[in-house]
Structure prediction request, 407 residues.
Amino acid sequence: MKGFGKNALLIFLLVAANVAKAQKREFKGRVADEHTGKPLEFVTVFITNTTLGTLTDEKGSFVIALDPGKYDVAVTMVGYGSIIYPLEIPIEITKALSPVLFKLVQTEKELNAVSVKAKRDESWYINLEIFKENFLGKSIVSKKCKLVNPETLIIVYDEKSNKLTVTAKDLLVIENPELGYKVSYLLIEFVYDFREKYVTYLGYPRYDLSKGKKARENRWAKNRRTSFNGSAMHFARALREKRLEQEGFNLRRLIRKPNPNRPTEQQLEDARKQLRLRGTAVLLDANDPLSIMLSKTSLPKIVEILDTTRVPYQDYLQINREEVKMTFEGYFQVVYVGEKEEPSYLTTSFGTRKPTFQTSVIFLRDKEIFLEKSGSFFEPLGIVFEGYWGWEKVGDMLPLDYMPEVD
Prediction:
């Protein structure tokens, strides 16, 4: 695993044994310097995507109480780089779980090599705004988020590939005043591909609850519930319980096919060759076959057909006790009828049409994807979100241990 600046990262999978649901298990460990063996104090150890975490004491020790389940754990400290750990070997939480020793390595060479390419000139600040829009998001909640320490970012634009790549020297600190969280985000990598028009990012957040007066906390609770409703996390929890319709979701098959009315790339190339043979001074008549052919290049390459038949759970959902997984081919359209789209979503994606119900599209990169009780997907990169869920970013996210208050 490559180093990511002055942070030290260790991510591993914790797999719980079959124990009573209400019983928590203590996940214990110790963090030490790889070379000296000395314990490291004030190392941040947290369960990613949750509010659970702690710091090591003067002996480098930590304890986190966890319910049975699967977790990603990050161990990070300024001045240290990433270390390699046997991720393919899961750690099982049992009554007799032995403490885990983490050995962190100091490293700055790789950071310095990357930082040379990331000088803060005028273009750096322009790219910073591009990063914030596509990382934090463009929703009402996201626009009010504040990136407290942008100076920790390493922003590099590659003209040859036309890609913007962003990493960080330290945990990103994000204040979310609308949801009442301070987020510490361990950014692994962010890539904006200008040529293909897509964004990918990978990282691990920790959430700290903000404190406020009763009125403010009530507003935060209301906003969190709004963010949760219709989210991918809400969908995953409802799907595990086979309660999609009851929770406001409609899932249907979406069929995508090449547009038969649009010329193929070979046909277009042949038409362009004929045009070049005629000479550039020749004006095409509207009824000329070449003119008709070239006029169809504006047609979409893909056409979509929605099958309005309800998809039975058994067609894509497999349940074996506590293990729940999705497996399907093609695409699903997921519509949440509980809320309509934000106006800002329409202006960035659909021009001036009126808001309708929040609509997303999902498909699998992996053969199967597991649904955790928390509402997370495992592996997270094995499922792709398009549409509304693809538009929502870090600013709209909630911790996986969030539970809506009962009305």
Summary: The chain has four domains: 13-107, 117-216, 229-257+303-395, 263-298. Residues 2 and 49 are 22 Å apart (CA to CA). Residues 1-22, 82-92 have pLDDT under 50 and may be disordered.
